[in-house]
């Protein structure tokens, strides 16, 4: 099988070279630094995971509301990062009627903790404009979902309004990730570091970020297996947040991962194929 990840990374390097020729790093950096402050991605996740009856009352809810919520099963210690993705290299076009602002508002109404928006054009039919539209339509923190190969793209992420970036261990050296993490930190961006196999997790844990993603999809072959998360999750220290990524399609998948201790989930395709992505979020995590 041709290695899709390497193909994508080669295109990304070309994109960075082309972008640099149009906009020098210093200009981009000023744009990034001129943005209003980022929304707190990590806090948004923690708030959902830690939500409890007591905290809810403390936050201004009433005991009656809280009991009602509990009875309805609405108080669960789960944080969902809801993805906005038109297409993928493995599935082709996933959603024809693609309105990022509407989808973002729908996700927010149905309790998403954060958003993830694909900004890659060549393989996922994404766009920085989609990220801006989604973020303007709600108050949720937004992850720029793309393949970062160069510090330039970290500034680019903040300049387009992103609140978090993804660093993929399979795509970068530890030194590269540490450099990009430091820039992200200086800009107020959260970092989700994504790994797939145990050796990659060892590397991911050397970063400072609390957000450790385990991708159930192998980016070299596209094979998906939820055991990828379940078999590694006990290796994540309790001060980190494990995010289970990809291939979560049915309530039984959520139940299995939740029973295994997973509290944060990144879901795209299952939501994108539904008429109301937000309603599907509520259904999948009910
Ligand atoms: O659509 P899914 O199977 O629910 O997966 C979402 C997300 O995990 C997936 O889009 C993803 C995970 N890591 C990535 C890296 C790049 C692009 C996309 C991804």
Automatic annotation (TrEMBL):
Its EC number is 4.1.1.48. Pathway: Amino-acid biosynthesis; L-tryptophan biosynthesis; L-tryptophan from chorismate: step 4/5. PROSITE patterns: IGPS (PS00614). Belongs to the TrpC family. GO terms for biological process: L-tryptophan biosynthetic process. This is Indole-3-glycerol phosphate synthase. One of its GO terms (molecular function) is phosphoribosylanthranilate isomerase activity. InterPro entries: Aldolase_TIM (IPR013785), Indole-3-glycerol_P_synth (IPR045186), Indole-3-glycerol_P_synth_dom (IPR013798), Indole-3-GlycerolPSynthase_CS (IPR001468), RibuloseP-bd_barrel (IPR011060). The gene is trpC. The keyword Lyase applies. Residues 72-283 form the Indole-3-glycerol phosphate synthase domain. It is an enzyme of class 4 (lyase). Keywords: Amino-acid biosynthesis, Aromatic amino acid biosynthesis, Decarboxylase, Lyase, Tryptophan biosynthesis. It catalyses: 1-(2-carboxyphenylamino)-1-deoxy-D-ribulose 5-phosphate + H(+) = (1S,2R)-1-C-(indol-3-yl)glycerol 3-phosphate + CO2 + H2O. It holds the Pfam family IGPS.
